[in-house]
Amino acid sequence: MRDYIELRAIEVGKYIIDSKATVRKTATKFGVSKSTVHKDLTERLPQIDHHLADEVRDILDINKSERHIRGGMATRQKYLLLHRVN
């Protein structure tokens, strides 16, 4: 079981680096929760592959810094669509 978790953490890390995906998108892709993805990336991966974990951390930091912008854009789109329907 432990090998599976370590392999998943590595695969999740590689996926984040290759696709620049968010934690939510990654969780959906791998069929696990956001909490599991976050734990894999922040706790397990640094113990397995420190270099990979550093690269993932950079992407997570970028995503975190942009999330308020993405949220605002999503809200704007929601209300634009609601306004067009009515």
UniProtKB/TrEMBL annotation:
GO terms for molecular function: DNA binding; DNA-binding transcription factor activity. NCBIfam families: spore_III_D (TIGR02844). This is Sporulation transcriptional regulator SpoIIID. Keywords: DNA-binding, Transcription, Transcription regulation. It comes from the Bacteria. The keyword Transferase does not apply. PROSITE patterns: HTH_DEOR_1 (PS00894).
